[in-house]
Amino acid sequence: MSFITVGLPVYNAMPFLRESVESLLCQSDRDFRILIIDDGSTDAGPGYLKTVSDPRLRIVTQPNHGLTYTLNRMLREVDTPWLMRHDADDVALPHRVAVTKKAIAQFPNAGMFYSEARYYQTRRSIGTFRITRGRPEELREITARGYLLAICHPAVTLNVHAALAIGGYRFDLHVEDIDLWWRMALTYDIHYYSEVTTYFRHNPASVSAANLESQAINTLYVQYLLLSHLHGLAPLPYDEVREHLSRRLDRPILRCRDAMRNANICYSQKRYLDGCRHLVRAIRANPKYFASRVLYETRSKEIVFNGENPEQFFDQRSALWPEAVGLKLASEHEKAMTPLYKGC
User: If we measure between CA atoms, which residue out of 114, 186, 118 comes closest to residue 151?
Assistant: First the structure.
């Protein structure tokens, strides 16, 4: 009996949906199920899905509720112990199911697995998705120091019971995955394997591309929630701290990331002159970040992560944790204010 379900949330995913689904149907190991939840698509996607005939495929339709609702429904709907995440514009390499099964057999009590992913556009793969590579204990220590793990969501396989036990996905801020990672790392083992199993499409219309600045602010909010948890402090609602977090945003880095993404898309489309122009924009926006991102491709053993130095949050304690003003951090948690690794 299959013990893995590939979960595919779909919302207006054409024209990429066909390639995405076909990459699943062509897996070398065919013993798995596919659960597609269409979240009220208004494009040609539902029509295409009706043409797909495969006994492993189950399609659920619902009115549009957003990604977080859909992902939580997926966790509740699956009848296998493992849920392999996949996005409707991404591509699974033919061995993805097979290598994931080997990892599960080796660590059956893990809370989560994740792998390498490469950026992808029009059948061309360029560059590696920046992730935190490490052993479960290293990932837990990074999290306990107050930093966030960098993991490609559609390269993840979740232990369904574990994901539900820690509360599943929690809010619609386009960072629902990052919020899940820190809770998982503090509670269960997260295992990384080095194979590239997923092509992550650089889609100009994606949620990440359309919400780059707000997503960066929301990532800071997730780090704020993590630090609140680690120090036993009560976090304020998002709307009450958003402005304070926004002031901490490194906008030159955002401009650099945006230009690098556009350069990658142009290169994959053979628009080389436009790609060079975007690379120049990226270098001008933040030379240091650009260099570190390029060097990441050659430093496979470097441990990177997301988030700001936790000390910067505690510098704003009166705004972020007003009820804790004057309280001293417990000594066993003060280490969270000191960086452990150097990220890029």
Answer: 114
CATH architecture label of 4-205:
Alpha-Beta Complex (3.90)
Give the separation between CA 119 and CA 83, rounded to whole angstroms.
22
Contact 10, 73 (CB under 8 A): no
| Farthest-apart Cα atoms in the chain, separation | 64
How would you write the pLDDT of the chain (344 residues) with one tens digit per residue? 689 999 999 999 999 999 999 999 999 999 999 999 999 999 999 999 999 999 999 999 999 999 999 999 999 999 999 999 999 999 999 999 999 999 999 999 999 999 999 998 776 667 889 999 999 999 999 999 999 999 999 999 999 999 999 999 998 888 999 999 999 999 999 999 999 999 998 766 655 556 788 899 999 999 999 999 999 999 999 999 999 999 888 899 999 999 998 898 888 788 899 999 999 999 999 999 999 988 888 876 778 999 999 999 998 899 999 987 766 554 344 444 444 444 43
* pTM passes above 0.70: yes
Residues 6+ apart with CB under 8 A from 158: 75, 82, 83, 84, 85, 111, 112
> Of the candidates 251, 252, 271, 250, which has an alpha carbon nearest to the alpha carbon of residue 262?
271
Complete DSSP assignment for 96-148: HHHHHHHHHHH-TT-SEEEEEEEEEETTEEEEE-------HHHHHHHHHTT-B
Domain with CATH 3.90.550.10 in the chain: 4-205
Residues 6+ apart with CB under 8 A from 282: 255, 256, 257, 259, 260, 263, 290
